[in-house]
Amino acid sequence: MQITKSPNNTATAKLMSVPEPTEDEFNLFRKLVLKELGFEWGDDKKYLLYARVQRRLQKNRLQTFQNYYDFIEKDENSSERQYLYNAVTTTKSEFYREKQHFEFLRQNIFPDLKNHTSRRQRKLRFWSAGCSSGEEPYTLAMEAHDYFGASFISNGGLRILGSDVNTEVLESAVTGCYAEKLLSPIPVAFSKRYFFSESKEINSHHQIKTEIQQLIQFRQFNLMSAKYPIATKFQLIFCRNVLYYLQPERREFLIRKLVDHLEEGGWLVLGITESGYKIDKMKKHSISIYQKI
Questions:
Q1: Are 173 and 131 in contact, with CB atoms under 8 Å apart?
Q2: How many CB atoms lie within 10 A of CB 72?
Q3: Nearest-CA neighbor of 33 among 91, 87, 93, 92?
Q4: Which positions ≥6 away from 10 have C-beta within 8 Å?
Q5: Cα gap 102→110, rounded to integer Å
Q6: pLDDT confidence of residue 154
Q7: Is the pLDDT of residue 220 over 60?
Q8: What pLDDT score does 276 carry?
Q9: d(Cα 113, Cα 154) in Å, to the nearest integer?
């Protein structure tokens, strides 16, 4: 696994009062996140900016959001932008989120992939785009390991890419360690098979086993980049609840990029609320599930 390490922001300077951003200051950041992340912010995001970013001003001893904007615009402070990206990105995730997708996966996608794989002796490559703290790619890995079998999986038959722009959640994902309460959506047989804990305390943390963890490579990059650092094509891409936050033109851009990175016959799974798209070169099979034709 490899991951871009984000700077340590635990040591903060003595807190000072920071005023809320003015309309002009807010518009500067609204344009910045649209350009860099594709997010389309309404006026209601002004408080989000203040609540999540004010500590970065305090850390850098800056008095206004204009000062902070000028600060991150300087080449020598470009690394500070990652803190901003981490602060303003939404990182909600859970195991088996939108469970119907994983039911469709078992009943339709996996049988299709198994049929093609057995005939062509190909290796499977999956991508969880916008993977947050790792629950989604780990769910994919557990389901695939159970369906395709340890022999196929252990011989390099499956590799999963988990990517996100947020370095903090990726650092959490790499550990593969989760509080017991977060494992509740996982079938009991899977939680016993694929996780372990050395503690008997209530709500202790559980570690995912190496056989699952080693299937996933976590990488940090921006889905709004013109070129992705990916040299392969995938048979399955999960990109759920990402389009929701994007400006319409950026949605179209991202969908085109995802389709380009699918093999012919490959599958694209979007979020349940992202079901109204008609995508070129793709056949819609179910709610927000498409196959490349």
A1: yes
A2: 19
A3: 87
A4: none
A5: 10
A6: 76
A7: yes
A8: 77
A9: 17
This prediction's pTM: 0.90
Determine the number of helices (DSSP H) and then strands (DSSP E) in the chain: 12, 10
For the residues 91-106, what does the mean pLDDT come to? Answer: 96
Whether residue 160 contacts residue 137, with contact meaning beta carbons closer than 8 Å, is answered with yes
Overall average pLDDT of the 19-39 stretch = 96
Helix (H, G, I), strand (E, B) or coil at 241: coil
5 has a pLDDT exceeding 50: no
* Beta-strand runs (E) in the chain: 124-129, 158-164, 177-179, 195-196, 205-208, 216-220, 234-239, 262-270, 282-286, 289-292
Higher pLDDT among residues 10 and 108, named by residue: 108
Domains in the chain, CATH or no CATH each: 23-88 (1.10.155.10), 99-292 (3.40.50.150)
Distance CA 62, CA 56 (A): 8
Give the separation between CA 126 and CA 281, rounded to whole angstroms.
19
